[in-house]
């Protein structure tokens, strides 16, 4: 089942260089905002939290 609502970061660049995320009950989907028909990365809750922790440590 595809995600129903994609969200783009408020920190995205005006030309659209960003990723979008969609939250579902069992996972988080991530895609390139410039290529919305392209591949989608799906991660579970644990993977999403690990990604956020890693991002905050950069």
From TrEMBL:
This is Uncharacterized protein DUF397. InterPro entries: DUF397 (IPR007278). Residues 5-54 form the DUF397 domain.
């Amino acid at each position: 089942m595809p995600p129903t609502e994609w969200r783009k970061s408020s920190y995205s660049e005006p030309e659209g260089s960003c990723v979008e995320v969609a939250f579902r009950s069992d996972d988080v989907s991530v895609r390139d905002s410039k290529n919305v028909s392209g591949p989608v990365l799906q991660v579970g809750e644990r993977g999403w939290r690990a990604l956020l922790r890693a991002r905050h440590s950069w």
